[in-house]
Design a protein that fits this description.
Blueprint (H helix, E strand, L loop, with lengths): L2 E5 L3 H12 L3 E5 L7 H5 L3 E2 L3 H7 L2 E4 L4 H8 L5 H4 L5 E4 L5 H13 L3 E4 L2 E2 L2 H5 L4 E2 L8 H10 L10
Parallel strand pairs: 1-2, 1-4, 2-3, 4-5, 5-6
Antiparallel strand pairs: 7-8
């Protein structure tokens, strides 16, 4: 079973990570305020010390942060997600951020031989707890195969399992 990484375990991201844990997935995560992840750790999440450590330990990484500055902070630098991505890895970035920042990060991810899927989520924190949050994935040519796989396994049912 694939290990999934989640960076940004606040209101929206924490609820999404919890749904993955509830579905029986192995999830590693990072939050800049570790205390906010206590309940997720109790539910089975492995808390890492940096976004890079999450990427290094994961087959796929998801992120959900507050804004463009927070995204750049978790993505760049020696402890950022990008530094930990292996060739062939997939990063699904779900924050609502500047398209310019997403493009900048997409180029850096591609240079590592990995794929960035821009999948901003719309909906409220309350919707992320149920089945009302929606994502709008966009990817470049390198993401096409991943988008097809994602469409087959996509479900809003909490009991659904990604293979």
């Amino acid at each position: 079973m694939a290990t999934l990484g989640f960076v940004g375990l606040g209101t929206m991201g924490g609820r999404m990570a919890k749904r993955l844990l509830d579905a029986g997935r192995r999830v590693v995560g990072y939050n800049r305020t570790p205390e906010k992840a206590r309940a997720l750790v109790a539910a089975g999440l492995t808390l890492e010390k940096s976004p890079r450590a999450v990427a290094e330990a994961s087959d796929a990484v998801f992120s959900m942060v507050t804004d463009s500055a927070a995204l750049r902070a978790i993505a760049l630098g020696p402890d950022g997600v990008i530094a930990g991505l292996q060739p062939g890895a997939v990063w699904a970035e779900m924050s609502t951020v500047s398209p310019d920042v997403t493009r900048e990060l997409g180029h850096a991810v591609a240079a590592r031989g990995a794929t960035l899927i821009d999948a901003p989520v719309s909906g409220s924190p309350r919707a992320s707890h149920g089945d009302r949050a929606d994502d709008h994935p966009r990817g470049g040519a390198g993401a096409r195969g991943h988008d097809e796989d994602r469409d087959e396994s996509r479900s809003r049912r909490p009991d659904a399992r990604v293979q």
